[in-house]
Task: inverse folding
């Protein structure tokens, strides 16, 4: 069982072959940390979004909040739930109104920014809850992709 600091060092020193692999690596680390430090079962299902939201509440209250790392970690998990559900793909693209390219998930022609959503959840609080966001996305995109 690794703590948050060890996990961060491991992830930040890892050489990932592409953006998708990096996001998957961070998402798997989020699953590990969710279980060991927060007692939450993150299993890439829609039901795990509530647990992720509870984790973000706790993380946002931490006096040692490392926003960049937490956004990458938990945002990657949120993005992987959506990517897997809708058979999407990660890409680097400019955030609307932003100046820098950020990871986004392309889902059926819609571009979502899960890391930015997690950033807003951590910094703006309850009005940015993930359950509402996830419900809106699933309402717009419909049924999950069929997995063979």
Result:
């Amino acid at each position: 069982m690794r703590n948050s600091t060890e996990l961060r060092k491991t992830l930040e020193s890892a050489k990932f072959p592409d953006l998708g692999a990096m996001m998957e690596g961070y998402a798997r680390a989020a699953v590990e940390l969710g279980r060991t430090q927060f007692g939450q079962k993150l299993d890439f299902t829609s039901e795990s979004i509530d647990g992720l939201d509870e984790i973000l509440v706790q993380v946002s209250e931490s006096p040692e909040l490392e926003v960049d790392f937490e956004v990458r970690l938990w945002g990657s998990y949120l993005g992987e739930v959506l990517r897997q559900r809708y058979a999407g793909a990660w890409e680097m693209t400019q955030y609307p109104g932003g100046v820098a390219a950020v990871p986004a998930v392309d889902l059926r022609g819609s571009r979502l920014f899960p890391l930015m959503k997690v950033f807003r959840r951590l910094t703006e609080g309850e009005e940015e809850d993930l359950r509402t966001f996830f419900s809106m996305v699933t309402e717009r995109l419909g049924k999950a992709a069929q997995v063979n």
Q: What stands out?
A: The longest strand covers residues 101-107. Residues 88 and 109 are 9 Å apart (CA to CA). The mean pLDDT is 92. Helices lie at 4-13, 19-38, 48-60, 67-86, 114-124, 130-141.
